[in-house]
Structure formats: structure tokens, C-alpha cells
Amino acid sequence: MKRWLGALAVLVLGRGRRKPRLGDERERIVQLRFPDRRAEGFVAFAFIAAAVCAIAFPVIYAVDSIPAQTQFLGLSLGLAFLFLAVACVGLAKGVIDDETEEEYKPPSNPEEQEEVEQIFAETGERFTRRKLLWTAGGTAGVALGAALVTPALSLGPVFHTGSLYTTPWRRGRRLVDEVGRVLRADEIEQGVMYTAFPEHADREQMGAPLVVVRLKPEQLRLPAERKGWAPEGILAYSKICTHAGCAISLYRKPTFAVVEPHEAFVCPCHYSTFDPAKAGKVIFGPAGRDLPQLPLQIARGGELRAAGNFSGPVGPSWWGVRLHKARSGP
Amino acid sequence: MKRVAVALLIALAVAPAAAADPPRSGIVHVKVPPGTSDVDYGAQLYGGNCVTCHGADGRGITKSVKGAGDVPGLGPSLRGVGALAADFYLRTGYMPLEDPNAQPRRSKVLFDERELRALTAYVASLGDGPAIPTPHPERGNLAAGLQLFVENCAGCHQAVAEGGYVTGAVAPPLEDATPTQIAEAIRIGPYLMPRFSEKRLSNQQVDSLIRYVKYAKHPDDRGGWSLGHVGPVPEGLITWFVGIAAAIVACLLIGKRLSG
């Protein structure tokens, strides 16, 4: 990274040293005017301002305690682009002379070709503080580039994905509702969707929330290895959609099953639809993975307990989501 | 070509209106001698208007049969649904339903008040079902209502109760829903909506929910101009018109006209 930056600086600074080759012995086409030092100063200032705003972006990004952080992030990036635009406009209008060549000269005419080249070279000659402008522009470009790649840091753990497989569920852990009351099997009714959490565990974890529903046992089409995962037809799945990680807050159930679609969980974000009777199979929408199922058991006292961990990792998919099974954590 | 396009446009404009129309034919009004009880009157109305789909004595029809006037009948049992469900389906115009495969939608109520009362009484007499609820939204808590609505309803009906979609059905807007109808729908879960039993949502919580829904219809626009509560549309239009004007001005300032 350091070497790249060094090379870039050499490139930027070195360019200013080149002397214009054309125009010395020829008659000028573009009239040489007095260098407009004020315009150059203005452009340099705009470039520096763009660079400062762009540098502010990763700084604001890094400091989480800033109130209204998102707004400031937007402001810094927006101002950086604004100053960059101002600098470009200033450069075009105040520093470089422009000469419009209306017709494209065919390459068969070498003399006219040279003329165009001469115009091109001469337009830049009013630059007196070339080095300054190149440095300022280069700094602005590098800073803006850095600001643009900064959000990639939010993409989450790349190498240490172990925590993504961890859920608070393990055999014997009880299910509680939103207010912490232990859920009993006999209060789970058909046609109602319940949200449940692990008892004595952090609810904010991705693997914590569940959706619990009761279907008729004869409706179930679970694979053979999940036999016994749904006692009395009570099923539990992760509440986090496997597509983008929204909470699955929609449950549809037919009032008159003969003509209406069957039971399904629907994610309100992009309408991924999962079939609870078929082990959380995706039946519609963008989700690429079935909803992870949590095996249940009914304890002797009638309360619901987990009988193990999820059938697969919970939450939105990532590159290694199929590599490991869900693990029990704190 | 142009005429075809115009005809298409007219057809498109008329089609939703036509689809929303309730079945105008098929309602049978019965004459009964004065003094007939509501249940008996309701039984006669039931025979004229409901029996094709819901079957004799409200037992339901689960295999399509041709009923009166060759109308195919198919419908759930009404035993035990109670006055609550009858009141809801009849007063929202969900029933009678033209096509048993279609989702019931809010439409014009074709029965008069007395007929509604009689039919509700008859359906209630078919089994031991819940009575019509009497919600008290004024006793509810608005903030709690918002919280409950966001947790339980907003997924489909949207946070402002404007309605939305679920795969396979439309979640209706709650604009025209009366407090009683909201309370009924919560307990029934019409069509694909889940049910919410009293254990899941207490009557007190239902009061709060209704209070929020009522509030969402006429929100307190403390910020000033409400922009018609049509979401980001006005803001978008401002972006287009003001933003594009600014962009054009910028172009004029930066650019240069080619002469000649």
C-alpha cells in the first residue's frame, strides 16, 4: 500500500516538471495570456477542501459516538464531491484556455494534426503552479478514493466467521415469549404465530428469535431425519429471513383451506415465503436457503424446550454459510 | 392504433371499478310475516343467499357442487363462528362472495339493517361462537397501540395501516374499518390473516391497537403540510422539478454555447 502511494506521488509530482515541447519554435495559435494566479489559487483551494471533506468521511465512520453519524457521513461525502466539481469547473473556466476545434481533422493531414497537438499543448501553458494543482488534485482523488472504499469495512467478518454459526440454543433450553414468560405447548394455538426467545440468553443475537406455530400433525412433510422435531405439530424456525436478515413478521393461514393458499411464513422485506410444513422450504421470493428449523420437545411440565440446535446457520447467507452446522454458544 | 390504445386505457380504467362491484344479482330478499323472530327470518335469508356455499345448517361445502342457478358452491362451515364472524363478513360486504375462489374484498353491503341482524342471529344460533365485541378505543393507549401495530400488523398492513401485500393475497387498507370490525378481524383472521387469540392480544391491547389505527387515519401533522400522506411521492416530485432545474442552471453556468 505504501509503495503504491509513493509511486502515485512520484507520478503526480513528476508530471509537473515536464517542459512543454511544442510551441517554442512555432508561431502560437492560442494567445499566451497572463497567468491567472487567483483562479489557480481558487482551484487549489477547492481541491484541498474536497480532500479535507473526503478525509472527514473515514474519520466520522470510525468514531461511533458521533450523534447523527449517518447524516454527517452523507454530508462529508456530498461536500467532497461538490468541491471536486467546483475545482473541475474552475479548472476548465479559469485556468485552462479552451479552443474549440469544430471539425475532426482526418489523420491524412499531418500538418493539421500537429496544429491540434499544438493547441492542446498551449492551452495548458498558463498553468504556473502546475505542481500545486497536481498535488492538490491528486490528494483530493486519493482521499475520495479512500472514502469510497471505507464502507467495505462494514461488510462483516471475512475470515473469522465462527461467531456467525453460533446460536444461544441448546438441548433443554426453554422458550419464552416477548415478556419473558415460559411458553407452554397447550397454549400454542393453530392459526396464530408466536415469537419466542431463549430463556436466560441475549435476545439481540441473530440466532435468538424464533417463530413458533402449530399445524395439524398430518399436515407435516418433514424429512425423515427431522422426525420428532415437531411434537404435537408445534414447529419452531429462526425468525431471521435467510435472504437479507429481516424479521419474519408475517404468517399467513387459510381461513378456508379448500380454496386458499396453505400456511406460510412471509418476510415483509422482499416477500420470501417459507413453508413450515415442509421444513422451512423456500416457496417464493429471493431467499436462497430454507429457514433453519429448531427441534422442539415438550417437557414433563408441558413447557416447550429446544431439543438441540438449528438445522443450519441462521441469518442472511454469507460465502461460507453451507460449510458448517449451527453451534451452541453462550 | 390510437383508437385501440384509447379503448385499452378506458378498459383499464373501468376494470378495477367493475371488479370491486359486489354481485348485484343473487341477493334474495324474503318477505316474512310481522312478528317472525330474527333467527327464523335469518334462516330464510340464509336459504336464499348463503346455502349454496355454506351448505345446509351452515355445515360447509368442501367439494364443489352446483347449487341454485348452476352457481358452484364451496365454503367453510359456519358452526361455532358466532355472531362475531357473521357481523364482520356481512357488514364489510365480504359476503356474499361472487366467486368462492376469490379473496373477499370490502364492497357495498346489499342487505339492510334488519336483514343483517337476522342473518347474524341465525349464524350465531348454529353453534356456540363468540359474540360481537364492543371495543373501547378511548380506553386504549396510543403509544402502546403503535408498538403493538408495528409488532403484529405492520408487516402486512404497513405502519400507517394503508394496506399491502402478502404472497397470495392482498392485505386491505384499514381506512374504512370500524373499531368493531378491527376487533372482529383480529379474532377471526379473515382469509390469510393469522388469528390473534385473547391470550395473544388482550381486549385492552386491542383497544390500544384500534386507537392507533384511528389515529393513523388522521395523523397529527405537527410538521406542517402533510403532502397528502402519500409517502415519498411529493418529495420525489420536488427532487425531480427543483433538482432538475438546479442541474440545468448548473449546466448553463458551466457550459458554453457553440457559436456558428
Number of strands of chain B: 4
Radius of gyration of chain A (CA) equals 33 Å
Oligomer status: heterodimer
Count of helix runs of chain A: 5
Under CATH at level 1, the class of the domain at 28-125 in chain B stands as: Mainly Alpha
The best one-word shape of chain B is elongated
For the largest sheet of chain A, list the strands in their spatial order: 2-3-4-5-10
- The CATH topology of the largest domain in chain A is given as Rieske Iron-sulfur Protein
CATH superfamily of the largest domain in chain A: Rieske [2Fe-2S] iron-sulphur domain
> Which two protein chains have the largest interface (Cβ within 8 Å of the partner's Cβ), and how many residues from each?
A-B, 32 and 34 residues
What percentage of residues of chain B falls in helices of 4 or more residues?
A: 40-55%
Rg of Cα set of chain B = 25 Å
Mean pLDDT of chain A: 84
SSE series of chain B: HHHEEHHHHEEHHH
| Residue runs with pLDDT of under 50 for 5 or more positions of chain A | 16-20
Spell the H/E element sequence of chain A. Answer: HHHHHEEEEEEEEEEEEE
Which architecture name of the domain at 28-125 in chain B does CATH use?
Orthogonal Bundle
Give me the number of helical elements of chain B.
10
CATH class of the largest domain in chain A: Mainly Beta
Low-pLDDT residue spans of chain B? 13-24
Q: Structural class given helices, strands, pairing of chain B?
A: mainly alpha
Report on the structure:
The complex is a heterodimer of chains A (330) and B (260). Helix content of chain A is 31%, strand content 13%. Chain A folds into two domains: 2-155, no CATH class; 162-328, Rieske Iron-sulfur Protein, CATH 2.102.10.10. Chain A is of the alpha+beta class and 330 residues long. In chain A, strand 8 and strand 9 form a beta hairpin. In chain A, helix 2 packs antiparallel against helix 3. Chain A has a five-stranded antiparallel beta sheet with strand order 2-3-4-5-10, with no helix packed on it. In chain A, strands 6-7-8-9 form a four-stranded antiparallel beta sheet, with no helix packed on it. Chain A has a two-stranded parallel ribbon with strand order 1-13. With 260 residues, chain B is mainly alpha-helical. Among the domains of chain B are: 28-125, Cytochrome Bc1 Complex, Chain D, domain 2 (Orthogonal Bundle), CATH 1.10.760.10; 137-217, Orthogonal Bundle (Cytochrome Bc1 Complex, Chain D, domain 2). Helices cover 46% and strands 6% of the residues of chain B. In chain B, a hairpin with a 2-residue loop joins strand 3 and strand 4. In chain B, helix 4 (82-91) runs antiparallel to helix 5 (113-125). Chain B is elongated, with a radius of gyration of 25 Å. In chain B, 33% of the residues are buried. Chain A binds chain B through residues 89, 92-93, 98, 100, 102, 178, 187, 189, 191-194, 249-256, 258-261, 264, 266, 268, 271, 273, 284-285, and chain B through 62, 74-76, 100-101, 151-152, 154-156, 164-169, 188-197, 199-200, 253-254, 256, 258, 260.
